[in-house]
Amino acid sequence: MARRNGAPEVNAGSMADIAFLLLIFFLVTTTIETDAGLDRMLPPMEPPEEDVVIKQKNIFTVNINRNGQLLVEDELMDLRNLRESAKTFLENGADGSCEFCKGKRDPASSDNPTKAIISLKNDRETKYSTYITVQNELVGAYNDLRNREAQRLYGQDFTKMESEYLNPETPESVREGLKDKVKRIQEMFPQKLSEAETSTN
Fold first, then answer.
1. Does the keyword Signal apply (predicted)?
2. What are the tens digits of pLDDT across the range 125-147?
3. Structural domain tally of the chain?
4. How far apart are CA 201 and CA 186, in angstroms?
């Protein structure tokens, strides 16, 4: 009986097919996480046809230094008080045109919510976590006021209405019913959050 020379060979002809099938399997079944960003409306590319004059009293300035300290309207402020201060500014209603505002109508503060602008500026060395926390407090001020008015007018929170309206899985008939409500609340308290150029000092 003749002896075989060497070890038996493995047929590797189908290995490429198996690797290709595994690659397709993992591509199809793997979910790719996307980073959630900040929801901001960028200014248009073209400059406006006419210059817009903004009164200084309609600008609520918030500065964050490299140490994470807040300078709000040129005064040091604790982060815990930022949201309430922003709400007081937004609904001040100095010109008397805002019927739903519950502000003090201080003539030195904002005229009405449609003219009120929050200007945020930070240092280049500001911690990202501090920056995001400040952003959340400022957006929270808008959401609190919008929720209050949505409860008064429609008996539900604005944030819930807006998320349902923006959800693509919401039936079209429901979205149509929410469209005017969401737009009305947004027009009552338009989110005008401006980010000034980062400071290098």
1. no
2. 889 889 999 999 999 999 999 99
3. 1
4. 36
